[in-house]
Amino acid sequence: MKQKFDIIQSTCIPLPLENVDTDQIIPARFLKATTRDEKFFGDNLFRDWRFDKDGNPKTDFVFNQPDFCQAPAEGVHQVLVAGKNFGSGSSREHAAWAIAGYGFRVVISSFFADIHKNNELNNFVLPVVVSEDFLTELFATIKDDPMAQVKVDVPAQVVTNLTTGRSESFEINGYKKYCLLNALDDIDYLLEQKAKIEAFESGR
Amino acid sequence: MNTLFDKIWDSHVVSLIEDGPTQLYIDRLYCHEVTSPQAFDGLRSRGIKCLRPEKIFCMPDHNTPTHDQDKPIEDPVSKKQVDTLERNAAEFGLAHFGMMNPKNGIIHVVGPERGLSLPGMTIVCGDSHTSTHGAMGAVAFGIGTSEVEMVLASQCILQQKPKSMRISVEGKLGKGVTAKDVALYIMSKLTTSGATGYFVEYAGSTVRSLSMEGRLTLCNLSIEMGARGGFIAPDETTFEYIKGREYAPAGEDWDKAVEYWKTLKSGEDAVFDREVAFDAADIAPMITYGTNPGMGMAIDGTIPEDTAQKSLDYMGFEAGQSLIGMPIDYVFLGACTNGRIEDFRAFASMVKGRRKVDNVTAWLVPGSWMVKEQIEAEGLDKVLSDAGFAIRQPGCSACLAMNDDKVPAGKYAVSTSNRNFEGRQGPGARTLLCSPLVAAAAAVTGVITDPRTLMD
Known about the structure:
The complex is a heterodimer. Chain A has helices at residues 22-25, 38-43, 47-50, 94-102, 114-122, 132-144, 174-182, 186-190, 194-202, and strands spanning 7-15, 79-82, 106-109, 126-129, 149-153, 158-161, 167-169. By secondary structure, chain A is an alpha/beta fold.
């Protein structure tokens, strides 16, 4: 939930697939919850890729492989690295809750679907857009060394592949950056705007 | 510059945050049971009410069973979610069209048909297919639950202004080609992310010639090419459709509204960030072969050689394969994409005088009670039942299988819905997206069939 961002340095979990849609991130049958129980959603992140129909882990899925099965913790697997067009399809915010609930703080990709990107930001998961080259190199780095780390410096807006030293700056607008650094959300902001809203309404 | 999108968006800007998003005023918020409970919880935990409850309409659609809606929902988890929406609507003073209410149905079918979604409006809902309402000449887009909470609390949303894109389609559609085929064709050209970051205006003679039902289908699928939304400038077809609907302006207000709506078009000098054009003559009845809606082809085509192996494995297909003649198991007519009266007319026209194949399970699910009544008023129910089809009760149904309408693992479903993602219609289910005509042709032959071969 609301948590301040600063510098995150961590190993990653790679998911080198393109067009990962939110139905895969959290299948529809898990959307029936009426509370924002991040543990529940996190437990069911990529449910049908992670588990077979009897609930047994599928060993060919990266989250279940020995190098990547450790649950995220400080410095460990806090970053998901995904192929382009991550989070396409359904607007379900449950997908962002699942990603946050699993323990990811950052998702790195070369391209995010619009709604999902907003949903991540609204849940204090940072979508970091990098170039195709950076992404390809990062996948290769992790393949060579599953313990490879990235550094995501939010104040400086720079992401670094610590194995190769390659850095890139990433976009985030000043307003959102302020929110992330200070753990403020958009509703906190909007609730202070009542006078402006009423002025707009009376001017129509 | 000077696009219709600019006009509508700019007239709803409450404020611009320096180096940040726009504070945008929202005219209409729709809430369904799946993406709203946590937003209402948020209001409660902050101790606040809805700022403009009269602009908000709630209805359950995702979990609703498509039979016996007069009885309690059997699945306790679904029931709880549906009941929670009703309780939240009552607590916050919002209109609620519950199950069995004659106004109930899929939100994206009900909004336009009740005159709740109007030209020039900003419309949002915690549902990516909110783009549907763009057919009314509105800026309509899907949002997440945190954003639903923003609108509940402040009638505003913070949003970056998307770029603008015009997709023009010119010419007359060929035999058996519908709005759904136009959308699947555009997606197959642009891919599932081709319009990400953009808001799309559909234009051109083909688009103009579409009925409102066709336009709603086209705009519905905007999100499937990544666009935040898609809309069509309102015209006489739009005004004719809206006039006399329950929540539409009437009397003097109607005249004033139409006068304003007539100004809602992009200027001759409008500049779009991107323009794409297609020729209607190139579009055939379409079908998808893969696991995202951009993976579509002409029904008589062959699966492209460069198709991702993961998709082929899931679908049980091979590159280079034709799908014509392939046996199918399920047919689904419905969803916010194709659950309107015109879709049932098309389906009925194809099955009239024919018979559903015994080993095909067909789910025909109207988008709303109003659509169901119209089906009966036009006698289509008789045509369909003579051909071996039953009409179910309205809801999202097998589009995403949150109710009991699930396609079993490994089975092939020919569906008029909007997504063929892995597991979308049930874990392991294999979905082929298409128009109501293609779905009907499959239902009466039991195999993938080019509908043109069954038409006079």
